[in-house]
Amino acid sequence: MMLEKFSLAGKVAMVTGCNTGLGQGMALGLAAAGCDIAGVSRRPARETAAGCDIAGVSRRPARETAAKVHALGRRFVAIEADLASAPPQALVTQTVDALGRVDILVNNAGIIRREDALNFSEQDWDAVMNLNLKALFFLSQAVAKQFIAQGWGGKIINVASMLSFQGGIRVPSYTASKSGVLGLTRLLANEWAPFGINVNGIAPGYMATNNTQALREDAERNEEILARIPAGRWGKPEDLQGPVIFLASAASDYVNGYTLAVDGGWLAR
Ligand code: NAP
Predict the structure, then answer these.
(1) What is the whole-number distance in angstroms between the Cα of residue 56 and the centre of ligand 1?
(2) Is 159 touching ligand 1 by the criterion CB < 6 Å?
(3) 245 in ligand 1 pocket by Cβ < 6 Å?
(4) Does pTM surpass 0.90?
(5) What's the CA gap between 38 and 92, in Å, rounded?
(6) pLDDT (tens digit, 9 = 90+) per residue, 19-54?
(7) Rounded to whole angstroms, how far apart are CA atoms 226 and 35?
């Protein structure tokens, strides 16, 4: 009986950036809990036969996530959009047209740019802020309007970072954007709680994905990072599945505006 509160049967979740990494892990967790998924992903820009772009970074189309969601017996709708420029309302309309409703939004898509603050370019500032903060806000706004029109509330889960709590180094726009995500999560939670909408965040620690490939390949940095994580390992996309199911389900109906660290103890240290 108690576990029914964690069930997402009959729900629909929009998950941004779910072709790979943490977004894929969370989409699969939500599907395993009973949810149909609308995956908002960028069309692969320059795909080679190997499925990689020229820089060797994975640019997998959402097909892999779709196949895995289908294998769990759930529906998957691929919505191709560059979130930095796509009109958010159109993404909500596509989801509702295809799946009939939307109950959960996971704002996962995010990028990082590394450079000394003294040399950091306006381009790297704008690219990160536009996706990580501005697109997150306006997609949340469009989805919240849909939740209110539907009349039964909803759940928004924003992906924050350790750099929502700490300063970091050489990532000024990322720190600014993720610190902004933490504050915005609180503000939106305050404004939308009266509509039965819960807005919360998940702050992943150091997770093994494309985003951190360069760090993991730098032997010295890799060793420093591992030595500071009490759990003694990099996180995996699956580590976010329990937390995202909790925050997407009725089990967290009285949790508002909180950002949960999933970090192997990094912040506790
Ligand atoms: P990732 O493997 O690089 O995946 C990022 C996802 O965002 C990809 O699906 C990517 O699509 C998508 N994306 C990027 N720009 C987009 C755009 N303009 N429009 C639509 N989709 C876009 O990164 P990740 O590590 O899974 O990160 C996911 C989230 O967790 C991010 O918000 C990140 O900041 C946060 N995070 C990660 C870590 C970590 O250690 N990995 C730690 C803390 C927070 P493409 O494949 O097309 O680029």
Answers:
(1) 16
(2) yes
(3) no
(4) yes
(5) 9
(6) 999 999 999 999 999 999 999 998 653 333 333 333
(7) 34
